[in-house]
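Students often ask why we bother encoding 3D structure as a string. The short answer is that it lets us treat folding as translation between two languages. Here is a chain of 900 residues written in the first language.
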Amino acid sequence: MYINKLYLRAFGKFVYKRIYLGKKFNIIYGENETGKSTIHNFIESVLYGFDDDVSGTELNKKYKPWDSNLYKGSLTIDGVNGKKHLVTKDFLLDTTQVFNKDLDDDKNPSMQEENIDYPGEYFFNINKVSYRNTVSIKQLGNKTDKELSIELKNKIINLSSSRDESISINRILSTLNNIKDEAGSEDNPKTLLGQYALRLKELEKARENTLNANRQVMFLAMEKKKTNSKIQQIDMTITELNKDLIAYELSIEKHKYLKAAPVKTELDEVNEKLYTFINEDCVQKYSKNDYEEACKLYSSLSIMRNDRHNLRNKRDESQANLNALEEDLSNNISDDFDIAKMNANFNAYKTNKITIKDMESKIKIELENVKNFNVEEINKFLENYDKVEENNTKIEITKVLLNDKHYELMKNFIKKQNIKSFFIILLGTGFIALAILAGYAAYYYNIQTYYYGTAIGILGIILYMLSSKSRRRAINANKEIESIECRHADYSKNIETLTGKVDEILKSSECEDLNKFKNMYENKKSQQNIINEKLKLLDYDKDSLNNIEEINNNLEANLLKDLKVFCIGEITDDNLEKANEIYKRKDSVKADILKYKSEIDNINQSLNKMDKEIIFEEKRLNMILSSNNMKSIDEFKKAVEHYERYIDLKNKKEYCENLLNSILGNTDFDELKVKTEKSNSYEIKEIDKNEQQITIFKMKEEKNKLLLNINNIDKEIDEIENQVRNLAEVEEEIEFYENKKSVFKEKIQVADIAAEKIIEISDSIKGDFMPLLKKSISENFAYVTSGKYKEVNIDKDMNISVVSEDNQDRNIEIESLSGGTLDQLYLSLRISLSNILSGNQNLPIILDDSFVQYDSNRLKKSIEMLARESERRQIILFTCQEREIEFAKQMNVKFNLIKL
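And here it is in the second language, the structure alphabet:
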């Protein structure tokens, strides 16, 4: 696609300004202040609008025309899906319209495209940031070489991390750290979070005090209620005490026995178990610290072995994936394979197949139509007609010869010749006679008549000769008459024969007369003409079919050759789709192969390291087991468990003895057993009368104390309620500070997540994007520097260097390069970036005074590279110098020159 025309209706200094751009190489020349930057910004603002920040607002004001009420313009983009689009922008109303028009119709736009606010994103499939990184290229600026190298390095680092030369990951991470530093930590009382935490502790303490006070009040209230209940119970109990005292004493003894009996039984069981340890070496010597260390080592080794097993599985899985990827058909596709050509050949092949099928069907129909005519019969009839015509012609000629008037004339001629010959002979005889008489008279009478006689004799001889000639004519005429008579006889016979043949042909053609025969001839002749026309068309279609079949055979051979790369031997839609799918994953498969190889190497390194660690830990474990005379950790564990069971039994014995003493006191268990055996029921109770009275007295005293306690409880409740804050107020203030703290914690959490995601995305971009960028920069930089610098290296720490051919392939830091070389590197970077980020869409490239620092050789090489680049995309070069124009002319580069 390319920008065809710019129309600055009213923008900056331009009003009604039209600029027509070529499809390939365009140079827009103008001195300073002639409007190059205005045109450059016009293109960007129509496609993407002005930025929403302060700089965008300033540019909007800057280019608003002073001498016009309008502020608008348009541009035309060709080659988008085979169509032309007109993009209009009204900067006052901030509205954008896109019209779709056919490439063959340059006058009237057709349907308006809807909902296209940013035409640049719609047509180029990139946002404004990517547009400035790919389509629009400016020089680095007027700085020192060191400043240029630092700026270029920062741009490459930013691109490798974020695909945007203006976005610095480090700067973003620093901003996120500032957000976290602003919030601070709860452990630091000088920060906001620390102050909020201190205040919350105070409030929580106040809330706890309030809650404790409330609980205490509730507890006191419950105590008061219980006390009242106890007073009632005391009143009821005093009446029951007398009869319950004796039974109570007996039940106490019974209860004591029942509590002591299971303890005594358990103690006997423990003593019995301890007896079994007498003959065993249960107190085996070992170090408790060694056992704990051995357990930790054993657990650690189990984890490490499990990790090693998982790594081996992961390595095997990665190796399997790598093998599968290496065996993938897409891995065998060469870089120069033209998939577009193959698809075009397939579409042409399919179209030709349809055409061949249609033409074969058409030829078949035409053959069927021709077969419907009896060509042999028609040809035979026409042949008979020709014979009839020929015979009729012969008959007519013969009849003409029979009616020849020459026969009668010949007879008259013979008659005239005979009469003429007779009179000439008669006259000659007379002259001969006179000559003889003249000779006689001269001889006998000596009269001078000799000469007259001779003359008359000669005249007579001449007459005889004329008579002989007439006679011969008559004889010849007579012979001719005889010949004519013979011919007449032959002609009559021929007429009879020819008439018979004509009749025979008419009879065989089932025609009554010549008129019907002629009508039938006309019909047959028209049929023959139709057949001849059909045969001519059939021959033409057969020739066309043969040509298309020959073309399709060539296409089929090429397609089979291309499909052989994908191990496909048959041309079908599914196979072509399969081939395209294989080709699409070529780059991803190669990238995955590199990824899996790297992953396998890393896993192998980790496994080697882990094997060493496991061997070391196993040695440590064996040393600990040996020092404690243990063969294995299980044996060590059993010994420890055995000892711990012995210690538990001793402790349990001591516990049971103490518990039994506490239950029995000074009473002997056997005596108590004998004493309680006499009582079969808890209902048997005996009580002393004096004890009964003492108990009643005590309960009355207790009742008085309870009444006094109730008064004290009431006073305590009043005192508590006066000393504590309202719980609702404390809760409200806590909620306020917790919200404050939550906001700052959320900021910190968001900052952490953002930093983590940014680093993750940056690493992903470095892994996927950086190799492509490095390769493309190296190719372009090597070309523009004529091979002087044949490669650009970027290591994992983002140290950037170039490989110099003049210095025996030595790496040279970019800080050592000149400003012109850095500009060349920057140009190579931007062109490479435009190819990668645009997905090889062949977007236009706009350069604004990008060669200011170039010397003649660098400029020539750059012009040559741009000319080469213009064969597949549009180049628009803004310049304030005439060097670019002169060099382009010297190098015979075709370009479209626009002077402002």
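Translate back mentally: Confidence is low (pLDDT under 50) at residues 140-149, 162-166. Keep this in mind for the problem set.
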